[in-house]
Amino acid sequence: MSVENTNVIDIVSIDEKDNAVLTITDHLEWDNKNEHLLILQDKINSYLGAIEGGELYTNYPDAKNKSIIIRVVALHSPNEEGKIFLERVKQIIEEGGYNFQFKLRPLED
Question: What digits encode the pLDDT tens for the residues 27-55?
C-alpha cells in the first residue's frame, strides 16, 4: 500500500498497549508545492472517515473498543510547511479523541 492510495488503510495492527494502530506508509519527498502535504491530508481524512463511518470496525473487528492511533511512517523528513501541517493534524486528531504519531524511517544504506 501507499500514501497515494487514499481508499485503503495501509496497515492495521494492535500494539503492546492494546491500541489499534492504523499506519500510513509514506515514501514521498516533501516538496515546495505542497503536493505531498495534500496527498497525506487526503489519506488521513480517508482514515478518519473509515473510523467514524464504522468501516474500520467492519473490516478489522479486533480494533473495536480500542484506542486509535493514526501513525505516519515516512522515509523523508518534513519541510517547514510539513512540520506545521503535522502539528496541526496532531492537534485536530487528538481533539477528535484519537492519537497521532509521525515516525521517520529513512532507508538504510
Answer: 999 988 889 999 999 999 999 999 999 99
